[in-house]
């Protein structure tokens, strides 16, 4: 008789850790004798909070930065500072520090486009108007420079923004650069704005830090909140950035087209370039969800073309096996391999970033050179698809629309409660308030050592020329 199977020995473990609550700036930190009011949600005819405890949040409501621990005493990961951080939970407070009748709110969008921008704007307007009774809400056009460039702010109301969530782009217009601290803060004072909602990426958040610091220095009764926006999903601490999921969904269309083109040719390669300057999240997630991609190149890891384990060798094996291949590359991958002129080495965009060269066009050229050199008498086709701006210039999908709504309302609740210099965002699925300075410095690269990617690679595809996932510097996702 076979012995009954038994599981691993059970052991009762316990642990304790002291969580460090991250300090959240508040207007009362530098302003005295601030008046407080009862939250108008108590009297809102369309929104009646339940009498039970828990609707209004208190300073003791927190969200943990890390919820996964290794209980082994030998683990050094548990000593990392981030494992002991917690943040104030986002949501309405019983007392507010702004009289809605005296609020003049300004909303500005900066940097590149992202699905969901108009949803955030819409929900800021509707939330301020319907939840708190604010009637003076303005849109600042053309990014940071819109504060001082001479144009008049646009008065906003729920009727005007009613259908904005169904549109891509930003109805307020946007631009890169144009940050002039003194001019911006002077304009805020001159126009009497006392709530500033800044929607943008990491560069925009660094600007928000400077605006907050200058307002603090001048001791102005002005709240500043940043709403993190990056289609690349490269902002750290928060679970993800709004618009990212929509962009991944849209990228499927390009990958599907590349797969059809590759399958329909003799020795066909479908090459798709996706957004991702410093991180490969869009390329990675689009690759994993499509199930049709053979190789994905991301900025987080180097790759090479020639020799053992190189891209050419891998693709040759794949073409011999399947007759076609699909290759996805993030725009920031392989930039150090592309020849640059002296002028190109110095070229910068409006935000001061190095202008990236077209890695997709370069790869297409290199692939053709390789094939016609090594296989001059065989047919070969490369179809290059670049949907870069198509995937970000669309309206948000249902999931991102909900996310944008929660972000906007979290921002409103926080600033009305007197908090300033913060960013709302989900941490482990729970919305929290994070100091904007932390967010402006936090990065979110693809963790190529994450076991989740290894599992999907090893289970989902047969591997040709696969290298071990751990401890290899030159590594790309191969399927």
TrEMBL record:
Location of the active site: 232 (proton acceptor)
Keywords from the named record: Allosteric enzyme, ATP-binding, Cytoplasm, Glycolysis, Kinase, Magnesium, Metal-binding, Nucleotide-binding, Transferase
Pfam families: PFK
Cofactor: Mg(2+)
Subunit structure, as described in the record: Homotetramer.
Purpose of the protein: Catalyzes the phosphorylation of D-fructose 6-phosphate to fructose 1,6-bisphosphate by ATP, the first committing step of glycolysis.
Name under which the protein is recorded: ATP-dependent 6-phosphofructokinase
Organism: Camellia sinensis
Gene from which the chain derives: PFK
């Amino acid at each position: 008789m076979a012995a009954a199977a038994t599981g691993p020995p059970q052991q009762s473990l316990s642990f304790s850790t002291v969580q460090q609550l991250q300090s959240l700036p508040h207007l009362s930190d530098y302003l005295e004798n601030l008046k407080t009011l009862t939250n108008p949600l108590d009297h809102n005819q369309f929104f009646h909070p339940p009498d039970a405890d828990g609707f209004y949040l208190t300073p003791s409501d927190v969200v943990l930065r890390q919820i996964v621990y290794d209980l082994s005493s030998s683990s050094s990961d548990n000593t990392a500072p981030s494992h002991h951080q917690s943040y104030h939970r986002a949501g309405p407070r019983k007392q507010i520090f702004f009289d809605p009748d005296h609020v003049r709110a300004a909303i500005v969008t900066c940097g590149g486009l992202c699905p969901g921008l108009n949803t955030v704007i819409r929900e800021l307007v509707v939330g301020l108007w319907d939840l708190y009774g604010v009637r003076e809400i303005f849109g600042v056009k053309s990014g940071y420079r819109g504060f001082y460039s001479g144009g008049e702010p646009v008065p906003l109301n729920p009727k005007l923004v009613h259908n904005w969530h169904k549109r891509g782009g930003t109805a307020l217009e946007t631009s890169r650069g144009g940050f002039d601290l003194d001019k911006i803060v002077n304009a805020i004072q001159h126009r009497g704005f006392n709530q500033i909602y800044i929607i943008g990426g990491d560069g925009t958040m660094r600007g928000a830090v400077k605006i907050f610091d200058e307002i603090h220095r001048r001791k102005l009764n002005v709240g500043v909140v940043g709403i993190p926006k990056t289609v690349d999903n490269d902002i750290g601490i928060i679970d993800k950035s709004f618009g990212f999921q929509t962009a991944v969904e849209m990228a499927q269309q390009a990958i599907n087209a590349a797969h059809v083109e590759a399958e329909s040719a003799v020795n066909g390669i479908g090459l798709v370039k996706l957004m991702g300057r410093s991180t490969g999240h869009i390329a990675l997630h689009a690759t994993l969800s499509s199930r049709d991609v053979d190789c994905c190149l991301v900025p987080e890891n180097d790759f090479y073309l020639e020799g053992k384990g190189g891209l050419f060798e891998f693709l040759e094996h794949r073409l011999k096996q399947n007759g076609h291949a699909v290759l996805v590359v993030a725009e920031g991958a392989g930039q150090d391999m592309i020849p640059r002129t002296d002028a190109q080495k110095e070229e910068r965009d409006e935000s001061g970033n190095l202008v990236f060269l077209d890695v997709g066009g370069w790869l297409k050229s290199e692939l053709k050179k390789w094939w016609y050199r090594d296989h001059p008498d065989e047919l070969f086709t490369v179809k290059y698809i670049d949907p870069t701006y198509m995937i970000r210039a669309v309206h948000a999908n249902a999931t991102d629309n909900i996310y944008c709504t929660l972000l906007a309302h979290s921002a409103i609740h926080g600033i009305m409660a007197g908090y300033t210099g913060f960013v709302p965002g989900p941490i482990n699925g729970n919305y929290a308030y994070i100091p904007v300075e932390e967010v402006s410095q936090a990065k979110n690269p693809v963790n190529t050592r994450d076991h989740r990617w290894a599992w999907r690679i090893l289970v989902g595809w047969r591997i040709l020329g696969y290298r071990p996932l751990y401890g290899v510097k030159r590594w790309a996702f191969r399927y």
